[in-house]
Amino acid sequence: MSHLNDQANRLMEIAPAGCYVALRVGFSYPAEELNRLPDPWVEYYTVKGLVVHDPMLRWVYANSGIVTWDRLAQDDPRGVLRHARRHGLSYGAVASIATPDAQGRRSYGLFARADRAFARDELDELLSTLTGLHETDGLPRNLTRAETEALRLQANGMRLREISSALDISMSAVKARLASAKRKLGAQNASQAAALARVRGVL
Length: 203
Fold this sequence. Notes:
Layout: H1 3-14, E1 18-25, E2 30-35, H2 39-47, H3 55-60, E3 65-68, H4 80-86, E4 91-98, E5 106-113, H5 120-135, H6 145-155, H7 160-167, H8 171-185, H9 190-199
Helix pairs in contact: 1-5, 6-8, 6-9, 7-8, 8-9
């Protein structure tokens, strides 16, 4: 289980209406993520294309630290925060972390409550938790050399048959290695597993 999953229950205790955490975001997607936002809000946000108007994400990429959503209301002409409130995300905070040793990657978190604003100590805990997660490398400790080699060849564009020939193993063995690596990395397919391994410095 990753450090992020270890922290999921505590994050939801502080932000019971929902949270989203993206760790070490590279060019295209995060190395790890946790999405505990309500499904209706995620669907509405996606269908309406709110990501391009989201004041929270604008703040993330221009700042480090933590801020409550009410501080962003003046920079929300499309009413993203108003729509969030209609989906039960009445009070919120956004945190962002970027450190020089993270090779330009940034981690951020969106946290929400329905009942009240976050207390100062809760904001401090959310920021310190995100900082700790950002600074944890997130590498799978049990990825074998054989799995890494199969992923490296796959990431270089080789097909299963070519990997099988290069490693002098059966295609079923290649599939098994890639499937195991995919599971350990938390990827949805072998291509994403290779990309995640590269982002995390495994390859």
